[in-house]
DNA sequence: CAGTATCCCGACCGATACTG
DNA sequence: CAGTATCGGTCGGGATACTG
């Protein structure tokens, strides 16, 4: 693993990391890692996300060029979301992150409990 | 890459991802990836972080068992921070994330500009 | 179905001052 | 040096209602 200098790592990269690190982006990207999904599919797949926040998150990811929004002009409306090539370069990292969180949930819970006990 | 079911990926893991994904955690973890650092070293290394937020971030990471805080009882105070074994398991992922952000800054900027122009 | 549009509360976080 | 304490503004984000 190469390490960037402090300046490289911390200055502009922080802006980008803020994006990836907001409340819902990683989960949305993870769900789109498996392929194309519609708005309502994502809403169902992500417990707790509000309609507003799903919209906002999707727009932000689209603006950043990470996902593509495809509108099919039919009635009722049909909109598909999938990863762009740029978004696909995040697939591995996002997957690793979600797997890490899943694998270390209990360790973190234990650490918190131990910390709070003191 | 194995994909977790929606439920596995989204429920409890979201709590953990919120931690990793907050404003400063990734940057602090990244800086500690290179080894032990003192409070003021981190403060200098991370432009824009306030004293308060560095303290809060370090406490949270310590509580979650990701970093270790070592107080040397001398005057003036000397406190070291480094990754725990659990924290070390995040090293690769955090490094990949920071490198990704650094490598794709321009693409994202271009995507934003293009999106905003429409 | 896939959104907009508002309202509004609470937390996040920066600024500042103080301390063992 | 490495914090803690307090204040206050901003804004993330939930709830609700409405629409092409």
Give the secondary structure arrangement, pairings included.
The structure is a homodimer of 118-residue chains.
Chain A: H1 6-10, H2 12-20, H3 25-33, E1 37-38, H4 39-45, H5 51-63, E2 67-72, E3 78-83, H6 85-88, H7 91-117
Antiparallel strand pairs in A: 1-3, 2-3
Helix pairs in contact in A: 3-7
The first copy, chain A, binds a DNA duplex (20 and 20 nucleotides) through residues 22-23, 38-40, 43, 50-53, 55-56, 71, 75-79.
Task: Explain this structure.
The first copy, chain A, has seven helices and three strands, in the order H-H-H-E-H-H-E-E-H-H. By secondary structure, chain A is mainly α. In chain A, helix 3 (25-33) packs across helix 7. The first copy, chain A, is globular. The model of chain A has no long low-confidence stretch (mean pLDDT 89). Chain A binds a DNA duplex (20 and 20 nucleotides) through residues 22-23, 38-40, 43, 50-53, 55-56, 71, 75-79. Chains A, B: Pfam families: HxlR. Chains A, B: It comes from Nonomuraea typhae. Chains A, B: This is Winged helix-turn-helix transcriptional regulator. Chains A, B: Residues 11-109 form the HTH hxlR-type domain.
